[in-house]
Amino acid sequence: MTKTAKKESFEQSLDALEELVRELESGDKSLEESLALFEKGVTLSQDLSRRLEEARHKVEVLAKENGKLVKKPLDGE
How far is it, in rounded angstroms, from Cα 71 to Cα 73? Predict the structure, then answer.
């Protein structure tokens, strides 16, 4: 995904990754096509993992204020 492209929602990215997996599992792609799909899938997977980690961190920050929900910026914001 380029920086100028509109960022897909988490769910859209997950759907795209699932579609890539289905295409790879079909076994009807050439080696070159399969490698390209695999590379795209790895990139999507890394992005999804990063986004999940950010969400987990936000939940932890909200939950760590003596039981009060207090929103704090993430590190680097």
Answer: 7
